[in-house]
Amino acid sequence: MRKIETVLISSGRLDLIYKWLKRITFYSFISTTIIGFSSQASESFLNPDQHGNQFGFEIGMGQTADIPACSNCPPPRQSHRFISLLGTYERLLQNQLADGDGGQLSWRIEAGLASITDDSINEQPYLINFSPLIVQYRTYVPNRSWNPKFLGGIGFARTNWKDFGGQPLNSASQFLVHIGASLEFQRNTKPYSLGYRLLHVSNGGSGRPNIGINAHVISITIPF
Fold it and tell me: What is the mean pLDDT of residues 70-76?
């Protein structure tokens, strides 16, 4: 009987994940369309040859962290590892290159799934990420094989990570805050990036408690 109940619960969660993935696909299409119309007026000074609009795929490994130290968290405050898979879209907003030197400002959209890998109770922990409000700044120096990038932004999540890491999230719907930096390495075709990100997950004060989860994420991004 327990096996049947476990299968039914797992199927219900998979149906929920599928439902939210369909929503993410729809919202991503709408956001991309809106960004396309809003940036048409600035197309005259964009340079698509210098890392213009592009889709990409990002895979990352993360670990929750006790930052800042939480004095009122229920012990033990455990740390968990997770894997993150993201589809990304970048649209060039401003090109500040002058004589091949300078930087570029982009609007970045992310959508994907993260899952805890060291779960010992087989609850299929998931976090569905949709982050349509990320700004990225890419520096560029000619004749250099690598250049730094910086990003920051917010997003939304649907998750069952309620009590992982001893961090009660209080609800399935959460907000995300992204702050990160990466190095972009040039290739003959398209560049790839190695990055670090500090990820914050919380309910934004919409419920109590609002302790939240913080995590370190190391990732590699490859454009299509």
Answer: 60
